[in-house]
Amino acid sequence: MSFRPAATVGMSLAEVDTPCLLLDLDAFERNLQRLPDSLKGLPIKLRPHAKSHKCPEIARRQLAAGAVGVCCQKVSEAEAMVDGGIGDVLIANEVVGAAKLKRLCELARRASIKVCVDDAGNVRDLDAAAHAAGVTLDLLIEVDVGAHRCGVAPGAPAVVLAKQITASANLRFAGLQAYQGTAQHVRKVAERRDAIAQAVADVRHTQQLLKDAGIDCDYVTGAGTGSYLFEATSSVYRELQAGSYIFMDADYARNEWTESGIPAFEHSLFVWTTVMSATMEGRAVVDAGLKASSVDSGMPRVADYADVEFVKASDEHGVLQYRSSTRFKVGDKLKLIPGHCDPTVNLYDWFVCVRNGRVEALWPITARGALL
């Protein structure tokens, strides 16, 4: 069910109802182009992660800016992207269970689909599902290069899985998924660079063992907004999965960026909120709480007010504290910078797209809640 948007096209920003998800189109468009511009001259392709935005309209704009396809985390996200006209999707995650495998194979009839594996039993299930559907599936072996989430250990375990895939009648070995997720929010540039250097070494070792086993492996994909230029210049990675660069949330902004070579992306995503109570000096309550902005990576930041802090969130309320030089009254509206863009986007049905203080477009967040 999609609820009506908080705005209509042409409406002034002041008229937009709250809480809602604002997209500053000028900043968004600069971010959209800034990342591919930073890759010019490098033998690397961009496959941005759609879990950040869950919106086919944004995915289409990423493709227009040079991306070769998108990543998704769930089959349902991939279905939303393909339904929205995206023809090349990597599910950068494991897909388990008969119902999901059936849907995955149905999707592979409509678009170019790749999926990740790290388990021999899952490989057998994928082969059986592909056979039943009459399709051939492209599989990437996920290698744990430091995130300690999914993935086999680098080296010999990947070779064992690759041999199983190549021996399967309905599967193709497509390469390696090597995403170092924990490195993305390491604050110090040197420490992020070191973490990616270790990931690169793990990938090289795995590629060499695959080569020794007679299995070609040129396709390696991974990387995120916090590190992508390190992977891009490694001569190992062929594809980048950065996603948050289009929005630049408050947590990413806490990273050190100087001397990383990664360009300064702008905040383009905001939660638009209204002051609903201001009964105490130095404190105000807004109508955006836990159901309006994810706080898993910290509280949102208040944009445009350096001395105002978002200090507490409950279901429908957010508490602001500020010095006495700042005054808010009931009905005032302000922008919050989410701590973590991905789960915040998943709370909304629409992007309210704004330029020069007016609503220019409304983009549906088609894959909102796509968990299956």
Task: Compute the number of helices.
Answer: 10
Please give the alpha-carbon distance between the first and last residues.
Answer: 16 Å
- Rounded to an integer in angstroms, the radius of gyration calculated over CA atoms is 22 Å
General shape: globular
- Determine the mean pLDDT: 97
How many structural domains are formed by the residues?
Answer: 2
Hey, roughly how much beta strand do the residues contain? 15-25%
As residue ranges, the low-confidence spans are none
Q: Supply the CATH superfamily name of the largest domain.
A: Alanine racemase
State the helical fraction: 25-40%
Strand element count:
17
Mind describing the biggest β-sheet?
9 strands, mixed
CATH architecture designation of the largest domain: Alpha-Beta Barrel
At CATH level 3, the topology of the largest domain is TIM Barrel
Q: Assign the structural class, choosing from mainly alpha, mainly beta, alpha/beta, alpha+beta, or little secondary structure.
A: alpha/beta
H/E element order: EHEHEHEHEHEHEHEHEHEEEEEEHEE
CATH class of the largest domain: Alpha Beta
